[in-house]
Amino acid sequence: DAGVTQSPTHLIKTRGQQVTLRCSPKSGHDTVSWYQQALGQGPQFIFQYYEEEERQRGNFPDRFSGHQFPNYSSELNVNALLLGDSALYLCASSWWGQGTETQYFGPGTRLLVL
Amino acid sequence: RKEVEQDPGPFNVPEGATVAFNCTYSNSASQSFFWYRQDCRKEPKLLMSVYSSGNEDGRFTAQLNRASQYISLLIRDSKLSDSATYLCVVNGDNFNKFYFGSGTKLNVKP
């Protein structure tokens, strides 16, 4: 049973560029949530997708956008990168029917913005 | 005010010690509470959910105090392998939005 997978594992970008991160949920899960974790901080909720729609959003600017595909996989896009966007980006999957209580995290993508 | 607050630590304890972490949350409407464990440079993993009546899983005991809006985690007989950062997680005003604390770092020493 494959767990949550994310790609790429590491990424280096420069300010102003755009980046796309990818996530495949755990088998049987239909909900994907994205988090940003800065060094020394806990994960911060970015947004959540279910049935290909954004259901919830945290306090992140519109530069952060996402998408969910029919196979439940998801992408996180960040435009006009800032130095402060450097962080570990975590994807968590769950099953909507469980009220998303149990989330399983992927290994994350480490983004460095220079 | 942050949704969830934790003492960042670090807590440095010897093997076999008992250690307790607390976490406070700001939204009195929160319904779901969890403790996650995160090892260095790894993803968070669910340690245990926290129920109103308190619950135990082996050496780990979680308690919830709704009146005071805090959650606790007690680890008995600490092992070296317990060294990690412990994250308190609370759902927000919407059932599907979760807030993480900054984490409490635990170092268990021989």
Short structural description:
By secondary structure, chain A is mainly beta.
Keywords:
heterodimer, A: 114 residues, mainly beta, seven-stranded mixed β-sheet, 0% helix, B: 110 residues, six-stranded mixed β-sheet, 11 strands, 53% strand
What do you see in this structure?
- The complex is a heterodimer of chains A (114) and B (110).
- Chain A is 0% helix and 50% strand.
- The N and C termini of chain A lie far apart (37 Å).
- Chain A has no helices and eleven strands.
- In chain B, strand 6 and strand 7 form a beta hairpin.
- The mean pLDDT of chain B is 92.
- The interface between A and B is medium-sized, with 24 and 21 residues.
> What is the string of SSEs of chain B from the N terminus onward?
EEEEEEEEEEE
What gross morphology of chain B would you assign? globular
Radius of gyration of chain B: 13 Å
Secondary-structure class of chain A: mainly beta
Count every beta strand of chain B, where a strand is a DSSP E run of 2 or more residues.
Answer: 11
Amino- and carboxy-terminal Cα gap of chain A:
37 Å
Succession of helices and strands of chain A: EEEEEEEEEEE
Proportion of helical residues of chain A? under 10%
The share of residues in helices of chain B is under 10%
Pair with the biggest interface: A-B, 24 and 21 residues
DSSP strand content of chain A: over 45%
How much of the sequence lies in strands of chain B comes to over 45%
Number of helices of chain A: 0
Q: What is the overall number of helices of chain B?
A: 0
